[in-house]
Amino acid sequence: MKQSDKQETEKGAGTDKIAKYCTSHSSIFPPLLLALMATAAFLPPAPVLRPRIPTARYRASPICAAASDAPPPDADTDEGEAPRGGRKDRRRVVRIAWEKLVRWSRSWRSRNRSDVLETTRKVVVLGGGSFGTAMAAQVAAKKPDLEVAMLLRDDLVCRSINDRHVNSKYLSEYSLPENIVATTSASEALAGADFCFHAVPVQFSSSFLGSISSYVDPKLPFISLSKGLELNTLRTMSQIIPLALGNPRQPFIVLSGPSFAVELMEKLPTAMVVASKDKKLASAVQQLLASSNLRISTSRGRNCRGT
């Protein structure tokens, strides 16, 4: 007899005894209690807790959420049931599939990654002040074979930079990278440039840019380092540059932030923001400037004024 049937029989016998006892002593037990006891005879038996049988836990096969260079987990799911040859075949199939996925991921990333620093051959800096010199040194230090041309108006400073790699007028206590070349010729400095850093003071920017506008490529991105307004017109750099160059569609970026030239020269942690209406252009300048000590954030909006 099963355990559940045995319990049912014992329960029924016990219920009959209780009913006979209650009937013979009806004066002692109230009617409500008798009804409850009679109803209990028809209730199902209480569930019997059975001990759990230990079962083998199998690991689920890995799901590739993103390709990485780490080898895939073991593909075995039923040790002891499948023959050893079957396990080896499954391991081989999973490993081959994983290697294909990793190769595809690497090729896809290489095709879609545009390394601006690798494709940039020349950068020009307009102006040889403190911040223009510091920015030239920042860019030149990232790539030794990158040509960084500084357009200056002082022959003595040009010779000092080219001969001794020192700006004798600004930040003279710091050495400059050897791939920085200074010149007073606008045509020589701007020829073949991929990016242009504008570090001329705002009050002199209109006249200076007007004098070199014939040498400027219409597609050359201008990165403005100058801050402030033109006093007589109250124009910002985002208005001065296209007007002075005679090109309303001249690519324009603003580089600003709580930073100093000395911090850049001493490689201290510095943060700046690149702002442009062109999101791709802002990202390109971010890649060009960002380094271990200089963090560049991007901003995009129509209210980019360059102040």
From TrEMBL:
Q: Which InterPro entries match?
A: G3P_DH_NAD-dep, G3P_DH_NAD-dep_N, NAD(P)-bd_dom_sf
Region feature Disordered, mapped onto this chain? 64-88
Any GO CC annotation of this UniProt entry: cytosol
What keywords were assigned to this record?
Answer: Membrane, NAD, Oxidoreductase, Transmembrane, Transmembrane helix
Q: Which Pfam families does the record match to this protein?
A: NAD_Gly3P_dh_N
Q: Gene3D superfamilies attached here?
A: NAD(P)-binding Rossmann-like Domain (3.40.50.720)
The highest taxon in the source lineage is Eukaryota
Q: Does the keyword Oxidoreductase apply?
A: yes
Residues passing through the membrane, by range: 28-49
Which GO molecular function terms does the record list? glycerol-3-phosphate dehydrogenase (NAD+) activity; NAD binding
SUPFAM superfamilies found in the cross-reference section: NAD(P)-binding Rossmann-fold domains
Task: Set out the biological process GO terms recorded for this chain's protein.
Answer: glycerol-3-phosphate catabolic process
Q: Which reaction does it catalyse?
A: sn-glycerol 3-phosphate + NAD(+) = dihydroxyacetone phosphate + NADH + H(+)
| Stretches assigned to the Glycerol-3-phosphate dehydrogenase NAD-dependent N-terminal domain | 122-281
Q: Does the record carry Transmembrane helix as a key word?
A: yes
For this chain, the family text in UniProt reads: Belongs to the NAD-dependent glycerol-3-phosphate dehydrogenase family.
Q: PANTHER family attached here?
A: GLYCEROL-3-PHOSPHATE DEHYDROGENASE (PTHR11728), GLYCEROL-3-PHOSPHATE DEHYDROGENASE [NAD(+)] 2, CHLOROPLASTIC (PTHR11728:SF1)
What is this protein called in UniProt? Glycerol-3-phosphate dehydrogenase NAD-dependent N-terminal domain-containing protein
Which organism was this protein described from? Answer: Aegilops tauschii subsp. strangulata
Q: What is the lineage of its organism?
A: Eukaryota, Viridiplantae, Streptophyta, Embryophyta, Tracheophyta
